Amino acid sequence: MANTETALKDVMTIEGAVGVALVDYGSGMALGTLGGDASLDLGVAAAGNTDVVRAKVRTMEMLKLNDTIEDILITLNAQYHVIRPLTSRSGKGLFLYVVLDRNRANLAMARHQLRRIEGELEV
């Protein structure tokens, strides 16, 4: 089992990774971040994407969908933003937010690696 710091470092080894945050979607607070730059404030991104997760969860409840979110993908011209809610008991209410450089990342491989990292993460 990996701790938060190890998991964030593992995410940053994904080809094209620009930044990652582990976020509590109850509060919108980032519990840990790695990467980013002047144009990518991971704290702001964490808070903003909390609204995305909350909206999707509410919509699923209103539709009475008895399912879970595997990930949410936001595709920009230059980046992929992947939101992956944690499914482990210790990770309930948390999600990984990952920004990938679209020109360098292989989205399918990145999602596969995130699934593995999320499965090993113990919060």
Helices and strands, with pairings:
Elements: H1 4-11, E1 17-24, E2 30-35, H2 42-62, E3 72-75, E4 79-85, E5 94-101, H3 107-120
Antiparallel strand pairs: 1-2, 1-5, 3-4, 4-5
Tell me what the structure shows.
The protein is α+β, with helices and mostly antiparallel strands and 123 residues long. It contains three helices and five strands; from the N terminus they run αββαβββα. The protein is globular and about 40 Å long. It has a single domain, classed as Beta-Lactamase (2-Layer Sandwich), CATH 3.30.450.30. The chain starts with a helix and ends with a helix. A hairpin with a 3-residue loop joins strand 3 and strand 4. The model has no long low-confidence stretch (mean pLDDT 92).
